[in-house]
Design a protein that fits this description.
Elements (H helix, E strand, L loop, with lengths): L4 H24 L14 E4 L9 E4 L4 E5 L2 E3 L32 H30 L3 H38 L4 E3 L1 H65 L1
Antiparallel strand pairs: 1-2, 1-5, 2-3, 3-4
Length: 250
């Protein structure tokens, strides 16, 4: 049994809404010390031997947070906060900082590009969400929503790949330096799940548009066949009438 355009459109809308929620949770992690935002971070590392650093540091989009009772203990926020331990933006020292972070802009640039890519992808995701309300009803809106969600998915995947690369490398650098480090499970789960949701949303929107096109073409063919049958029956009746008149004259 096939799915209707309304069903596909609504399901695509649901997955897009879920992805937007997960992205917002990741984006706002570290902004406030309230649940659940105080549980979301990218990387946690033991930094007690670094001068001026917290005993345990957690990196978010907005700041470096300490840890209190297993939750983020964040202070002042800075938009697009970079992951660059030796710089003045983080610890402002190279003492006991892993050598992989010193003398390179690799971690700084990769973490900096995450934020704008995420914002661009989130913008197109929200646009796709609103056009998705019309995708339930119209075929064109389904294709438009699919296109917007595809753009959102592209930027979302770029952001998630950058996040994975930079913080996995950072974890390895801290662990190699004898400083225990681990990834933030929630942030990574949210971002990768959001990517999957956007992929499914894009697929469902496009399928909804295709179903609408199929139904339209079928309806057109049916009307065409009915018209053809009507005129064919008229022609047959006319031929039979002519034959009957000819036989009467004979």
């Amino acid at each position: 049994m096939g799915f209707s355009r309304a069903t596909l459109g609504f399901t695509g809308l649901f997955f897009m809404a879920a992805s937007i929620l997960l992205i917002f949770l990741t984006l706002l992690g570290g902004v406030r010390n309230s649940n659940p935002l105080n549980q979301i971070y990218f990387l946690q590392a033991d930094t007690g031997n670094i001068p001026g650093a917290p005993t345990t540091s957690r990196w978010t989009f907005w700041n470096i947070c300490g840890v209190a009772n297993g939750r983020n203990d964040c202070g002042e926020t800075h938009v697009n906060f970079p992951f660059d331990p030796p710089s003045h933006r983080n610890f402002d020292t190279t003492q006991n900082v892993p050598q992989e972070f010193i003398g390179t802009k690799h971690y700084f640039l990769m973490s900096r590009f995450m934020f704008p890519f995420l914002i661009i992808g989130l913008f197109f995701a929200v646009c796709s969400f609103f056009t998705g309300m019309l995708a339930i009803c119209t075929r064109i809106a389904g294709y438009l929503s699919g296109f917007l969600s595809w753009i959102a998915l592209t930027f979302q995947v770029i952001t998630t790949c950058l996040m994975t690369a930079v913080f996995v490398q950072g974890r390895h650098a801290f662990n190699s330096n004898g400083q225990n480090a681990s990834l933030g499970v929630k942030a990574f789960a949210f971002m990768w799940t959001a990517s999957v949701c956007q992929f499914l949303s894009c697929l469902l929107y496009c399928l909804g548009g295709a179903v609408g096109r199929k139904d339209t073409s079928s309806g057109y063919s049916g009307r065409k066949e009915r018209r053809r049958g009507f005129f064919s029956s008229q022609r047959s009746n006319s031929v039979r009438s002519q034959k009957k008149e000819t036989n009467n004259y004979a």
